Amino acid sequence: MRDENYRRNGRFDHRIQAARGQVKKFFGRATDNPRLSAEGRRDQVFGNLKQAAGKVRDAFRR
Q1: By CB neighbour count within 10 A (0-12 exposed, 13-18 middle, 19+ buried), where does 40 fall?
Q2: Where is the CsbD-like domain (predicted)?
Q3: 39: closest CA among 52, 28, 51, 50?
Q4: Domain spans, the chain
């Protein structure tokens, strides 16, 4: 039960990280701040990668 709750919260955290990255990227481009834009892109990519890794992990558990 505990492991299942952790996976659910982890998935939610990864979605938040990807969304936060998307917002940072948007504001970086809007304010012409390349550092903020790059940081947002990095956060977005890492969040998406963690989501994909979680899906692969779940596929092998079944």
Answers
A1: buried
A2: 11-61
A3: 28
A4: 2-61
Describe the crossing of helices 34-61 and 2-30 by its angle, rounded to 10 degrees. 160
Per-residue tokens: 50 = 């963690």
Write out the E strands in 1-62. none
Distances, alpha carbon 55 to alpha carbons 21, 24, 33, 52, in Å: 20, 25, 33, 5
Place 11 in a pLDDT band, splitting at 50, 70 and 90. confident
Report pTM. Answer: 0.76
